[in-house]
Amino acid sequence: MQDGMLCLSANSSFTMKDLTFHLTALLLLLTNLSHVLAAPYWITDNIVGNDFYRAFEWENIADPTHGRVNYVDQATSKKENLTVASLDSFVMRTDFTTVLNATGPGRNSVRIRSVNTYTTHVAVFDVRHMPQGCGTWPAIWETKESDWPAGGEIDIVEGVNDQVPNAATLHTTAGCTMPQSRNETGTPTQLDCDTAVNGNAGCGVHFPTTNSYGPPFNAAGGGWFAVERTNTYINIWFWSRKDPAVPLEVKFGAALVDTSRWGLPTASFPDTSCDIPDFFQENNIIINITLCGDWAGAVFTSDGCPGACVDYVDNNPAAFQEAYFDFAAVRVYQ
């Protein structure tokens, strides 16, 4: 070493200042890496555009919530443009052109269920637009349909008749409850998750911002919803499209995510008095758009919508032009 230089070879040399800089950078890298490795989830399902057609099954079934809809199969959804995929978009919607016969089936719509099932995982839903309008009842959720409610249900996005904000809710068999005080930004509602209590209201959390649902969500350009399920808690986050707090790994669909970097969840469901593995089995992701039914129909008038819900759906097809989801992506990490 001479004149402040460290000779590494005949053709390369670093000043002490350079060496210090690189050692500091390496230390920061190792520190960040150790932080990432504290709670890593690697991407296993990156569902974009046409990938939806292979990653989900179309549920051509009678609506379990008694909505005024007719869930169609995949071929019909494509033929009638109820589902449309492009390189970076998947749109699913209700019919908005047909006046219905009062004695016939409901308005054509779409309900899809993921082929894969999940226990411990993170799922990120990058949504540009969600269904809006009187009579609409859109949902993004997870459950085990064949064993409901024993398999548990996690509602990530759900609401009716454009009533803001979004609510995240758990539905279970008897014995799962939530504490009133939790580390979350949302506001708890009912604390008992039992489907037999209060007409299956579930244990819910109202989100703190109106742009988490319906017309305000769409006006803001959409946003990201994320759920993390472990054996000790279920957490749900929401970031609006222009929210400066959205993690870059969420915004850009990174291959690795670390939820410990994401800040307080919007809704937190700890295992304080709910053994998660006991109440939640391997779940599918379900995305659907129903109309009226047990919830939207029951509060249709009190939510400020005109007339009777079923009549409104039957006779006003143009009212459902905005009743569609536009997904930029669904990404699952495990």
UniProtKB/TrEMBL annotation:
Residue span(s) of domain GH16: 56-304
PROSITE patterns listed in its UniProt record: GH16_2
Signal peptide range in chain numbering: 1-38
Entry keywords, A to Z: Hydrolase, Signal
One GO biological process term: glucan catabolic process
UniProt entry tagged with the keyword Hydrolase: yes
UniProt keyword Zinc present: no
SUPFAM superfamilies: Concanavalin A-like lectins/glucanases
Gene3D superfamilies noted in UniProt: 2.60.120.200
Molecular-function GO term, any one: hydrolase activity, hydrolyzing O-glycosyl compounds
Pfam annotation, one family: GH16_XgeA
CDD domains: GH16_fungal_Lam16A_glucanase (cd02181)
Designated name of the protein: Glycoside hydrolase family 16 protein
Lineage: Eukaryota, Fungi, Dikarya, Basidiomycota, Agaricomycotina
